[in-house]
């Protein structure tokens, strides 16, 4: 991807993340929470350019489960930047043909089974309404016209390259506004699409997403308790099949795998923040009572032993002092 030919400048903020721990602080500032699905091959990057009335963020993501709250009073477009994007939102498959347009505040769930490249173009509320959004709380997933989509993608890439090698162009508001106007005109074309191509998440998908949120809340509320599928289904007033189907639809894995993954990440977070607790204490606090199975699952997920994570956290604490 074009990240390799970019260099940071006064007009381009460029950050590369080599591990999930370095990525976490940046994510927390954006009210987002990721569960990586392939820690061994983690690599993420982000490039940011500011124009007079919009901000362009191009990101290289990673295989993950993502929960995020977008706050875009002026509107936002999320656009695939390659032909190979694969993701799902509330069980709805999204590929490189689609773009997302939203305005207002929206809590979104995504599963990305692979590395993806995408652009977030965020508009200032001061930008004159161009007729893209008819409501303040709108969200659409639409099939883009292929030519219009490609043109916007190329413009975004050109703006980033220009910001990298000719940052002085962004120091003059007139020039920056000219670059922005070209992008806005291209987005006008992108929004001129057949309304029938709009894809909204079906009500069944919304119900599945709500069930998964209930599971998340339950796991958070009872971190050390054993969780049985039948009891959980009874708690939420649905069948086991409905509950399991919701997790598979929204998260792309079984209920058992999902709960175990959440608890493994919670244990890792506790180990990294530990100021004296043992591995066994951290594991039991997250519902792992068979320590041999826990250690095997932890190593398979994070490619290191839990004791190594704890030792690294303690060493970092000593170094900080």
From TrEMBL:
Residues 213-312 form the HTH araC/xylS-type domain. SMART domains: HTH_ARAC. InterPro entries: HTH_AraC, PchR_regulatory_protein. It comes from the Bacteria. Gene3D superfamilies: Homeodomain-like. This is Helix-turn-helix domain-containing protein. The lineage of its organism: Bacteria, Pseudomonadati, Pseudomonadota, Alphaproteobacteria, Hyphomicrobiales.
């Amino acid at each position: 991807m074009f990240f390799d030919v970019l260099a940071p400048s006064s007009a381009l903020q460029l950050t590369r993340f080599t591990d999930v721990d370095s990525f976490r602080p940046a994510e927390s500032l954006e009210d987002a929470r990721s569960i990586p699905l392939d820690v061994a091959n983690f690599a993420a990057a982000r490039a940011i350019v500011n124009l007079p009335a919009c901000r362009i963020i191009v990101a290289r993501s990673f295989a993950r489960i993502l929960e995020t709250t977008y706050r875009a009073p002026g509107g936002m477009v999320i656009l695939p930047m390659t032909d190979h994007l694969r993701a799902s939102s509330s069980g709805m498959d999204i590929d490189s043909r689609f773009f997302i347009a939203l305005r207002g505040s929206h809590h979104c769930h995504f599963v990305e089974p692979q590395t993806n490249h995408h652009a977030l173009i965020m508009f200032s509320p001061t930008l004159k309404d161009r007729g893209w959004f008819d409501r303040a709380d709108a969200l659409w997933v639409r099939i883009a016209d292929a030519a219009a989509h490609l043109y916007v993608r190329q413009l975004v890439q050109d703006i980033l390259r220009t910001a990298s090698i000719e940052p002085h162009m962004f120091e003059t508001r007139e020039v920056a506004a000219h670059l922005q106007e070209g992008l806005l005109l291209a987005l006008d074309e992108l929004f001129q699409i057949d309304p029938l191509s709009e894809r909204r998440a079906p009500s069944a998908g919304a119900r599945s997403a709500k069930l998964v949120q209930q599971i998340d809340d339950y796991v958070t509320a009872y971190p050390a308790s054993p969780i049985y599928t039948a009891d959980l289904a009874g708690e939420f007033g649905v069948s086991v099949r409905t509950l399991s189907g919701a997790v598979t639809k929204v998260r792309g894995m079984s209920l058992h795998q999902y709960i175990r993954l959440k608890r493994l990440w919670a244990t890792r977070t506790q180990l990294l923040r530990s100021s004296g607790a043992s591995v066994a204490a951290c594991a039991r606090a997250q519902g792992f009572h068979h320590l041999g199975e826990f250690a095997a699952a932890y190593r398979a997920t994070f490619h290191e032993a839990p004791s190594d994570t704890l030792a690294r956290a303690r060493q970092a604490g000593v170094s900080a002092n």
